[in-house]
Amino acid sequence: MKKFSGTGSGALLLVALLAAVPCAVQSRGVGSGRAFDTFRLPNSTVPTHYTLRLDTDIDRGIFDYTGNVQIRINVVETTDQIVLHSKRNVISNLQLRNGAGLKVPVKNFEFDEEKEFLVIYLGAALQANSGSYTLEIDFTNSIDRNDQAGFYRSSYEDDQGETRYLGLTQFESVDARTSFPCYDEPGIKTTYDIIISCGVAYHARSNAPLLGVQLIEGGKKLSTFATTPRMQTYLVAWLVSDFVYERVVLSQPQLAVATWSKPSSAHLLTYSVDASTRFMRAMEEYFGERYIMSKIDNVAIKSSDYSAGAMENWGLVTYRESAIFFEEQQGEQGKVGVVTIVGHEFTHQFFGNLLAPKWWSYLWLNEGFARLYQHYVGSISHPELNLRERFITGPMQTAYRADGRLTIRPMTYYTETRQGISSLFDSIAYDKAACVLRMMSYALGERTFQKGLRYYIQQNKDRGVVEESNLFDSIEQAAKEDAVLPITFSVHEIFGSWSNQPGVPVVTVRRDGNEYLFTQQRFSDEPPEVPFENSWWIPISFSTPSNTVNEKLPAFWMPPNVSEVSYTIDTAEGETVAFNPLSTGYYRVDYEESMLRELIDRMTTDHTAFEAASRARLVDDTLNIAHSRGGDYDAAVRLLSYLRNEMDYVPWMTAFKNVQHMQALLRTNEKASSLLQSFVEQLATPLLERYGVTQRSGESASAQELRSVAIELACSGSKSCAGVARAMAQTVGGSTKTDYTANDGALMCSGLRQISGEQRQVFMEKISQALSGESLNNPFTKQSLEQALSCMGKDMTNIRSYAKYLIGLSETERTKALHRLIVQSKVSPAEIVKSIDSELSLRRSISIHQSSLTKILSDVAQYVAEPSEMKLLNSVVSSYAPSIATEIEQQMNDNSKWIARNAEPLTLALSHYVEA
Questions:
Q1: pLDDT (0 to 100) of residue 736
Q2: What is the mean pLDDT of the chain?
Q3: Do domains 244-358 and 649-915 have the same CATH topology?
Q4: Which CATH architecture has domain 244-358?
Q5: What is the DSSP string of 143-191?
């Protein structure tokens, strides 16, 4: 073992070594003749075990660290070079030994900066299958970096106002290489021994359980961890901190579950530990597989220092504080947030960790399962939270919105570059994949699908690396055993039609007596210049008032590449037929005019005749199909009018997201925007009267969210609500509270639009003092006040720039903040884009992960339609995120065309329904 120095002279060593080490490959593949024409490793050598030693002095505020990595490798094909990944690591020594411990001559090593390769040239060729070798590398690096990736630093202020530093890791997708030299590809799995030294007042945690701690010289200690399971580099993790924890130890089998945080937040950890234990045991039972390690830690990181949101590191899961903390004042809505984020990361312990994707092309095999089962296993572990219904209003809505774009990619999609891989972490990998998996579960029957997933785990866990065909094989085995598909059908063909094609289908239905005729095509928000050729295997489900046999299980599978399919449904006089009634299928339904009219009439007369999910599906499909065509909006607006009588969560949340989309694109058209506001105010007023403005003890998360929606849409038209909102804004101007509820944010926003300029100035000063003061220890109070900034419009820039504000928010919070800034507070997208450009030109002043940057720019693009704004955003994207330039430009062009196509007919239709 190398002796670690704790001198902190790494900065000088860093400069000296940077001067000594070549920075770019001058002659690639010398000897073997291999040219690096791909970003993939040549894999002539593969790792079989890592021993990684790190020496840190974070407790002393020293951010350089030294490391030693010993990688045991096998030679797969004869080669005279070893190629692995390394970026940011300054190498001071490198040697190779054979199985007998004898040195193998190394000529030199160089870096390929573009591909982030470390290329080691050997004095003699290594023969294939010639035994095991050990590559040993000494290196230095630093956690003082501003991209919130790799091994980096965070901090907090203790009770005495002193800054305390910590070091944490965020390696997904390709940042393990930025912290230690390694073979940094997802399909390469091996074991790790990790040893970390730190100050005696600090401690280290890693993936595997702690084996022992040894006191060493310099007032330090050395922590040694057990050997990990075979895993990929992006899951390797460690934490060096003085955090405290709350822990529960389960038995049969033994499992220690803990959540760690800064000491002042120790009282906010209990619910996350309880949620973790309940979800873990429910997940193990559902999938018939035990979690492989004897411990799992959750770690809460300061939200502004953690762009990733959460990360499923095997045994050491990291989260933003705002995602994992819980306090009773949040109510059930806060519990939903904790259970779903814990559920997502814990599902990854099987799907992603135990079963790793062969390449990033199959990222959806990780994220789709995690997104689905955070809701579906969560509904088993926490039935009181009604998480299954939230799938329809959450992931499904997000997937439909993303998958309607012309330039969208398929679920399985190959790319190699750092930027390309980062762009795969999108709504297709998460939300669409979850929708398709959910659809297959309903189409085959949940028990059969569950059996298939158990086969998938058991048949692949020893190898540990999978691609989509492995999943299809296992599901097909279960489907055949249970005889749930016709014998000639292939799961590979059915599932492959969804994973390998972009887009979502729209099924058009027309009726001739009791015969129903179906056609399919790809749905698009924007009509394509050339007709689509996409076609899918679609499970068609339906229900009538007297027949619900096929409301989940398909009545038939609509095959691809067939012009029209006929199916007979016997109905009694006056009965209506609803297709895809519970939103189990991932497709839209376009009814012929007479059928749609009957459905709307029935909804208007008695909406409870349809399930809530069916009402939501009809609203979403009808409105989006109207948007894609323009023209007559009478049916869509008439359908929306039924919402005056709607009090259920699923239809209202679905409608609300559609309303926000229309508000965003109609905001510059004064007449259309005003009519839309009056219309939705009329629709939401009964909802506001039902739920009021005051949060009640013990109420459901759905009630909390519906109240917020009602306040957002109708408060300005209600004297009582407007009075409460105004009083709240004035109260904050006097002093800040410590017990803001989930609905206070909506009320504060409404109140800020009513109070005088002088009162807004007082409000701004109080918010500024509260957010900058050391006394604001309650993270939920801080979160509520942070959210209020978006309601201050241009005034907020006196406290924080738009860019810094948006960068510090979670994805969900940012979506809400942008809508409030641009739609409600009328801040132009151009001002926000200029702020982002200014911040990015001074990169050292901010911390932002590349994937977060692309998401922020994509979110802003949803609002951009003016030529000058389009030009400005295109310029920023081309400079800082060129990998998404085509997608951003397409989105902005689609916005312009949507407005041209829809503003006038929507204005006409709304004018007929808005009460004078």
A1: 57
A2: 92
A3: no
A4: Orthogonal Bundle (1.10)
A5: S--SSS-EEEEEEEE-TTS-EEEEEEEE-TTTTSTTTS-B---TT--BE
Closest to 317 measured CA to CA, from 299, 332, 303, 333:
299
Amino acid at 721: C
Listed as own residue / partner, the contacts of 450-453 with beta carbons closer than 8 Å and 24 or more positions apart are 450/286, 450/287, 451/478, 451/481, 451/482, 452/476, 452/477, 452/478, 452/479, 453/287
Please give the full DSSP string across 668-707, using - where no structure is assigned.
T-HHHHHHHHHHHHHHHHHHHHHH-SS--TT--HHHHHHH
Q: Which residues, listed in sequence order, are joined to residue 138 by a DSSP beta bridge?
A: 68, 93
Token representation of residue 238: 């460690």
Please classify residue 866 by burial: count the beta carbons closer than 10 Å to its beta carbon, then call 0-12 exposed, 13-18 middle and 19+ buried: middle
Known binding-site residue numbers for Zn(2+): 344, 348, 367
Q: C-alpha 658: how far from its chain's center?
A: 21
Distance from C-alpha of 107 to C-alpha of 570, rounded to nearest angstrom = 80
Asked if 783 and 323 touch (Cβ cutoff 8 Å), the reply is no
Rounded-to-integer distance, Cα 860 and Cα 872, Å = 12
State the residue for tokens 């007032």: 219
pTM: 0.94
Comparing CA positions, the residue from 847, 839, 848, 836 lying closest to residue 888 is: 836
Q: With CA atoms as reference, report the closest residue to 289 among 314, 261, 315, 253.
A: 253
Q: Give the residue from 68, 63, 263 showing the smallest Cα distance to 166.
A: 63
Q: Rounded distance, CA 422 to CA 91, Å? A: 27
Closest CA to 302 of 265, 250, 248: 265
With the C-alpha atoms ordered 305, 311, 317, 323, is the resulting torsion angle positive or negative? positive
On whether the CB atoms of residues 653 and 666 are closer than 8 A, the answer is no
- Does CATH number 1.10.760.10 belong to domain 359-500? no
Distance of alpha carbon 481 from alpha carbon 487, whole angstroms? 11
Name, in order, each residue with C-beta under 8 angstroms of 660's C-beta and a sequence gap of 6 or more.
819, 823
Over 50: is that where the pLDDT of 177 sits? yes
Q: How many residues does the chain have?
A: 916
Q: Which of 71, 31, 33 is nearest to 51 (CA)?
A: 71
Q: What are phi and psi of 598, to 5 degrees?
A: -65, -45
Class of domain 649-915: mainly alpha
Q: Write the single-letter amino acid at 596.
A: L
Domain 39-242 CATH superfamily: tricorn interacting facor f3 domain (2.60.40.1730)
What is the pLDDT, as a whole number, of residue 783? 80
Tokens of 393: 């209003």
- Residue range 814-858, pLDDT digits in tens: 999 999 999 999 999 999 999 999 988 876 656 677 788 889 999
Closest CA to 811 of 758, 855, 866: 855
Distant-in-sequence, close-in-space partners of 383: CB < 8 Å, separation ≥ 6: none
User: What residues are annotated to the active site?
Assistant: 345
